[in-house]
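dude i think i finally got it to work??
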Amino acid sequence: DVLMALDHLQQPDLRVVVVGGREIGDGYLEKLLQQWPQWLIHLPGQPLEQMPLVVAGADIIIVPQRNDPTAKAQFPIKLTDGMSMAKPIISTRVGDIPKILDGVGYVVEPNSPGQIADTIAWIFNNLEEANAKGNLGRQRCIEQYSLDKMSNILSEIISPLC
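look at this
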């Protein structure tokens, strides 16, 4: 969907960076690289401690989840990766994503390259506002999804059981 959105925008300086990829060898990533070489950059998998450097280089984080049972049950870690780095985030209206990004990100319908394209264009045309929203996302990430916050929540749940 993101690559189709870039086809729609036809902005030659835009790129999608994929880090790592499917390890099941189904050829999916190779097909994408063949069909959209003008938009796609594939980096090898990176150690976890290197990912902040990769995310820091992004202008926008896009998490285009599909509306299927697996995606509905997920909390895509890419959301908090982007939020922690104060990046504007575009994701799809699937599962808890609208609640997670409420007021701090941009939510589009699943399977909607046109909406993704429109939102990418809006962000680049309103970068100051988009970056302010990214900063709100970072604050939410610290307040609700940081290791300290999650540890406290888990401790409150587990303590009565001990």
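The chain has a mean pLDDT of 93.
im so relieved honestly
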